[in-house]
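Sat 14:20. Reprocessing the chain from the morning session after the first attempt stalled halfway. Input below, unchanged.
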Amino acid sequence: MTDKDFSIETKLIHAGEPNPRIKGAVSMPIFQSSNFEYEGETSYDSVRYIRLNNTPNHVALHQKLAAISGAEAALVTSSGMSAITTALLAFLKSGDHIMAHNTLYGGTADYVVHDLPEYGIEFDFFDALNSEDWESKLKSNTKVIYVETITNPLMDVAKLDAVVQFAKKHNLVSMIDNTFASPLLFSPIKNGFDISLHSATKYLNGHSDIVAGAIMGSQAHISQVNSKLIHLGGSLDPNSCFLLQRGMKTMSLRMERQCENAMEIAHFLENHPKITQVNYPGLKSSKSYENAKEFLCGFGAMISFELEGDVAVADAFIQRLEFAINAASLGGVETLVTRPVQTSHSLMSPLEREKAGISDTLIRYSVGIESANDLIADLKQALG
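Finished this time. Tokens:
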């Protein structure tokens, strides 16, 4: 499959699939072998071995990910955090500086604050929604600028084109965590970002049954990341490769339903008297609405909100929900709910969460593919 003009829906099904089919198998077989017979490979990277991310399952998946992202190359990793940390370490060394969005996934924020300094790497957080203070955060040793397409858990959308322009102006490597948007709602590489990162655990796979990461970019950038990944050992096993490849084939259908559901639910929550704040970029009341409308092909399926009362009230509400499962992750076909301070952002200190605008009572709601009417009825009864 070489025609780059095919739609992403078609690429999700056909890109990267073996041609001819292996023994006629319609689905990509699982190559459950750690190593492969030597066939005259002339470099270490080309020796076929699971840790080198080049088994038939890896190769097929890399080609599919690159195709749907408009990238020259792609790489899968053992988790989303493996993708993030390996990419950062591939482009940062002792004495370097990174600018990172001030509202990030808790694991990423904690890594930037507590781990990168141990490597001698400096950091500054900046407000990606306000470009006026970006120059003040820039240093002579700044090498990377890092943002999220839709931030976790406040659902902010930055002026993404301005981030790209700033990076190019100052010769920075631009990285974006595109997990919440998925390649269906935003294509970072096509819009000028150097590196697109994903927790493939979420929307790419969509079934809450694997942990995986993905990195997309130019061949040169991905080769640099892969060299680091080979040494760190964050490879993805063939069975998870198979499940991720299978899950991706239904992503367009899943995301369409989830985004539709989320819009209905966000409007319901915004109009409910017991809800004091709704964070969803598809609402006109959102400070990110104009940016989301300009840069995204949809508003996503993640919502966060505050209701009247304290932590006990928030927990009681979550416990009364019948369909939403109280769990740490997101992006699956089932609806999930959590308080980020207990899960995704629990590594951050109370002061760090306060600076990021994440309260103890904030509830994050990952919308699934169930009936929107049923989900709304469930929210209504839990609020009642």
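The domain at 8-248 is CATH 3.40.640.10 (Aspartate Aminotransferase; domain 2).
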